[in-house]
Amino acid sequence: MKVNLHPKEGLLFNAFMLAFIINSVQVGVGLAGLPRVVYLEAKHDAWISVFLAGIIVSVVLVFMIQMLKQYDSADLYGIHVDIFGKWAGHSLNVLYMIYMTSTFFIILMNYVEIVQVWIFPTLPTWQLSLVLILLVIYAVYGGIRVVVGVAFFSVVGTIWLAVVIFVPLQFGDFTHLFPIMNANVKQLLMGAHSTTLSMLGFEIIMFVYPFVKEKQKAMFFVQMGNLVTTLIFTFATLISIVFFASNSLEKTIWPVLSMFKIVRLPNLERFEFIAVSFWMLIILPNMCFYLWAASKGFSRILRRKQKWGVWIIAIAAFAGSFFIKTRYQMNTMTDLVAKLGFYFAFCYPVLLAMIVFVKKWYKRRESKHAETS
Amino acid sequence: MFKWLSGKKAEETPKAHSLDLEELKEQLKTELNVGTDLVFRTMKRDGEKLIFCLMSSLIDSTRLDDIVIRSILNNKDIEWTCESIAKVLPMISITAVNQLNEVVAGINEGKVYIYAEGQPYGILADVEKTIQRGLEKAETESLVYGPKISFTESLQGNMNILRHNIKDEDFCAEDLTVGKRSKTKAKLIYIKGIADEETIQTFRQRVKDLDLDYVPGTTVLGQYIESDSWSVFPQLMTTELPDRISIALYRGKVAVLLDRSPDCLYGPTSFFSFFESTEDVYMRWNMGLFLRMLRLVATFFSVLLTPAYVAVLTYHYEVIPSPLLLSLGESRARVPFPPVMEALLLEFVIELLREAGARLPTKVGQTMGIVGGIVIGQAAVEAGFTSNILIIIIALSALGSFTTPSYLMGTAIRIIRFPIILMAGLWGGIGIMLCFCYFIIHLLKLETIGGPYLTPVYPIRLKDIGYSFFKLPPQYLSFRPLTNRTDDQERFSKKKAKQKKDVDE
Fold first, then answer.
1. What is this model's ipTM?
2. pLDDT in tens, B195-221
3. Helix, strand, or coil here: B185?
4. Could you list the residue ranges that cross the membrane (chain A) (predicted)?
């Protein structure tokens, strides 16, 4: 397998699009429940935790981009093989594919659950998940160009929801925020840790990087994307803290969706129905990118057509949807994936970057050594 | 084993026709089985024989009599040989041929074959008569403002109009033939130095590669050369307005004219260019911008309104504020159907009216509109078939879909409404959103002559948005649209346009 991936000229997209990609993949089902999970850890300083998490993500992104820059045009699959050799590298690749498949699955199941809770309590899980999976397959079949397009339209089509979220502020009580920095560092870090599931998605950069046209600009736009995400998350958390009373926020599973209830237009009430529907456009790029990146592994590792990978993962995810029946299982699965994500997206890439730096440094030294002697 | 079956028959080797007049006649008669349409006129002079072979339905008989036959009769002292006859014919297009297939093709195109017995070859003289209607106002793309002349069915005439619009030395019109059997003439039109070479090549290649017996018109040609034939959305635009073509050519597009077709096909055309009207160009920019936005919003609501009604009334009535819900409930109280049925029924009626109106002559068509709009609408509500509010919504969305300047795109928009209504009836807001996501992905996948379909929105070309999505004041449009990858990028000097006459002068 080649380490570097050189896609056709027509498949490349502008670095500018990376901002949309990172933003759209990060914003997903996690956001709906984000304020509560952070609040449980960091109490009314939760918004600081979220912001902190954003900063951590941006540091991790620096590591990732620097690691990718060591190569000409490689993705994580290639880097693994380059660093660890064929067998160990491929095993890691397969692990990563499994991680991405399970993230794909969790996003899907969480959205189906939201729909069932908020709109159609009797809707069978398999129906909606089947249709959503087919939709995502249709998009992924179009290749990276279409998937990036979905990310773009997702951001453009749902950014107005970020404005709507400020509406509940008029009913807010800002005293909820004080005293600021009441939580200790450990609580803040625990809060930041609990944002993992929402923040996940930025690791996709390690797979789309070969398709970026102006690679030197990648860092800037990736950081921009993350910045927007962090701001949206921080404000959503802040507004939730201001809006909800302490004990009611702890009991509201999807505070962001609950807040939409308050939005009222002359001809529309109960805005959350629209918000939940629109949430589909928000999660669509997440699912597309995870499916695309995971199935890309098939063509990279097994040298089969990517279509095979798409179908295998899709069928696995669809089959998996039959095993989750209760809220309890759902919670366990989500926590598991969040934990996986913490290691796979936060810790591991930093570690790998270190290894890559050392290896490159060693190689450079060696070649210099060879020249002088 | 069956190789001989799949193998093509050996091409007939061209052969010279018979030198004997009677045999020539027989040969032509067997080749062109057209009965009395094929006319022979033989002249004799001192044992010499001269024959005129022609297709009476294709030729202009006055031209034949006045020019060809008269000039031969008047010049009595000339020899009846090919050269000398050619000398006396006061015509431009004369060709000397002797192959039977060339003669047959010539006669078929409306030429007269003049042959003196015993000569090695004869003359084909063009006396073709084309049936052509006069220039008329554009019908399908009617305009309030701007030039109204429209193309006709004659390729010659259409080229004439275009040529008069564009007196550019770089204006190119390549000859193409479409249809293996019908051999319809076509022209590939572009402006050299502006149009992208790759786009031209794609067009040329796709038209040339067509292996069809007959193509009825440019709209059909468009369907054959576009990339995705399964899609409901048209990917190439046809228009009957010559000025639209001129504008497009100067933006770097490529056009195809087909003989006997009153529309011109051009591309690459993105999704949003189907919502452009030439009026936007002729009007002041702010008016144009307003109208274009109006059209886009109308289209959006045309697709969304009815499904939203169905979704809200079937599943999410909480969304409606209580005062509005009361009046809605009141008007729907007598309706026995679920909202999906009601909406589909009424949409069906509207489509019926539109179709019936289009098929009937104008005078009866107007009556149809009145009967449909007032009588059926009113009666349907009174009979308790539908609610008043749905009638308003359906009428609005029908109006919205008719604002699209391109008839094909308008039809596409009306058609995609039906699956969305069905999904709205099935899954409410989720169903509508599913359809929207599907259409976004679908539009992302489409392409028009190799270019992206959703440009300039995706891939985003901020500069081009002033061309096809919004409309900017003319001094800001000093460049040609980037998406067309034009060779000559600048239309006029940007600097000059920005010069202002103000106090600093």
1. 0.94
2. 989 899 999 999 999 988 999 999 999
3. strand
4. 12-34, 46-65, 94-112, 118-141, 148-171, 191-212, 224-245, 273-293, 308-328, 340-358
